[in-house]
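Appendix B, record 7
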Amino acid sequence: MIGLGTYAFFWQHSALAPQPLSLADMLRRTRDLDVDLFQICDYAPILSYSAAELRDLRVLADDLGITLELGTRGVLPDHLASFLRMADTLGATTVRSMINTAEHQPSIAEAEALLRTALPAYEAAGVTVALETYEQVQSRDLVSLVEAVASPSLGICLDPANSVAALENPVDVIDRCAPYVANIHVKDFAFTRRGGWVGFTLEGVPLGTGLLDYDHMLATVKPAERGITQIIEHWLPLGETIEDTSALENTWNLSNLQYLRSK
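C-alpha cells (predicted):
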C-alpha cells in the first residue's frame, strides 16, 4: 500500500508557509491524489490534540477512506504508551519510531530493556513499532536489537537513504533489514558537487532519478506480498521562496506517486 505523510508536505505545513496546512488539509490533499494511506510522522502539534480532536481526525480520515499511521521518536515506555493510546483512537496499526531523541540516546542494551517493557501492550493491541534505519544507529545494531527483543510487534522502518551518512551502502542496508521490515520510507537521493567543486551535497531528488535502487528494494523486501506500507517522503531543499518550494513539493508528490504506481 502506497501512502503519503507529513514529510511529503514538509514545507507546506511549516511555519514558513503563508498559510500552513493543517492535518485535515493534508488528508484532503492525500485524497485528491487518490491515496488511501497517510502517516502522521514527527508532527509535534498532534501531541497537544485533545481526545475529541483525535476522534474528529479519525472521523475525517474514515470519511475520506484514508488509513492512518503514526510516527514519533524514542523508546521510553511512557512515551510509547501515549502513542499507543493515540493509535487506538486513530485506528493506526503502525507507529514508526527511532531509538534516539535529542534528550535521550540509550545504548542498544538499554533500548532493548525499554522495548521489552513497552511492547507487551503493543502486542495485545495488535500495533507494530517500526524502528527506522538512520545514521545514528548502524543497521547491524538495529537488526540485532530487533532479533534480541523478538517481538511480533517490533520491526524496522526501512529508509536506506538515511544510512548513507554513516557510510553504509544502501543496498547492504536493504539486504540486511529485509526480513524485519514493517514499514518503508521511500525517498530518492543524490550527491552533487558544491560550489568550486569543494565537497558534496547529499539531497533529495524525484524517485527514479537518483541513487536509490528501488527495484532492488522492491524485489528484496516484497512489500506488496507482505502487506508492508510504503510512505513517500522527500529531502527537498528550501528554494528561493517558500511558494516555489511548496509548488515543487506538490510536483514531487505527483511524480513520485506515478513512479511507484508504475512498478
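Remarks on this record: The beta strands are 2-5, 37-41, 67-71, 94-97, 128-132, 154-158, 181-186, 188-193, 200-205, 229-232. The radius of gyration is 18 Å.
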